[in-house]
Amino acid sequence: MNKSVFLLPVAALLAACGSNSGGGGGGESSSIKIVGSSTVYPFTTTVAEQFQRANPGTNVIVESTGTGAGMKLFCSGVGSNTPDVSNASRRIKAGELEDCHENGVKNVVEIPVGIDGLTIIQSVNAPPLNLTQEDVYKALAANPYGQGPNQAQTWKDVNPSLPARKIRVLGPPPTSGTRDSLVELYMEKGCDANAQMKALKASDSDKHKDICTKIREDGAFVEAGENDNLIVQKVAQDTEALGVLGFSFLDENADRVKPVSVNGVAPTEETISSLQYPGARKIFIYVKGEHLQAKPSIREFVQTYARMWSKGGALERRGLVPLGEADASAATTQATELTSLDPASLN
User: How far is the C-alpha of 134 from the C-alpha of 138, rounded, in Å?
Assistant: First the structure.
């Protein structure tokens, strides 16, 4: 797995390795360790840079591990060898929260930081392409509609109106929250466009999950790791390939890649903010409440995040789409109060 690590400064790595003993203290009070989503990573590192300038005595470590792997680390326990914060490109799952609680992480604080668009990209040199969620499902499903292994080789095979262009999609691995969003926003929605599949969800949810969410493994979908910049690089050089990643990476690399429209809607800040774009999703950070007392700098870091996610703020300039007014107000309140997540809200 490709991982990115942001260290402020190099001494942060030493702080991570030579911290205090375990327990509820969370290790070195002058360090903050953050893991998780590659999509949220650039926003958190931007906040970390600003926070470090204002608080030079605090070391900040941000590691891109993917949402799922980040949650596993975050929920592994309390103390010096565990992260303080986890970035996530989806909500924490009920099972992950249960793992947290079983390992002593009882106070998980959920903070939405903005909206991202799960975009499908192609090379700027490729002809324009407009897909539906059902097209994506038919192209990538291991067993489309339960009718046997996927035999489609080109996009024309799944929809006669599409070009005879080889199906080759570079995307995230199963440990990634972006992969979870691909399944939820594209695969399941595309599958449920079929009335029989939608009915199956009510009658046999396990069978529905297998048919609607399992991605083919014959080379049409390529797991490209957690390094979204690598996906951009590969797609930019291949006019047949498509890529799946967060909107900010598209926005930053508009000279090399361009969006594929979905259901006739192109991803822009406006279509994502209004949730008109089918791939729009909230993104989050999760804070370990048990570490707040020993590390007051975590609370200050979250406050810095809240100041930077507003409309016209530094994170919007970085590619983050700000939350709507009501959601932004609630998020700002949560960033101040740091109320623990109610497990019932995940059901």
Answer: 6
